[in-house]
Design goal:
139 residues; alpha/beta; Nucleotidyltransferase, domain 5; 5-stranded mixed sheet
Length: 139
Amino acid sequence: MNLRERVAEEPEINLTSLIDVVLLLLVFFMVSTSFTRESEIKIELPQSSDTQPVEATVEPAEIVVTAEGAYFLNGQELLNNRPDTLRRALIRLYGEQRDLPVTIRADARATHQSVVTAMDVAGRLGFVHINIATVNDGP
């Protein structure tokens, strides 16, 4: 009698159904999660009671933001309120001179997004002295 030794099959774990469940859970959580938009910044602006005016030896760049979101650069209205227009106007006026202070004067009814856009454009160009003008609320 010729008896052969039986080779036992190694048990395998079928991962197909586990992967299906994990992917379904992933899709479910992605769909049900609410994402916040970073472009919407909701802040409450502080009032200043004791401020010291900034003395500048060089004429600073002044960006005015109106209630409608229009930009004025040193008293001249820009064509539109797009960030690229403001960037090109700052480059045209100041070239490579980035050590000048930039003062942003925003109307109280201006959207926060338009003010943040002006700050972002000036910051990306390399202006590091960015000031926001406020009204002194003190006596």
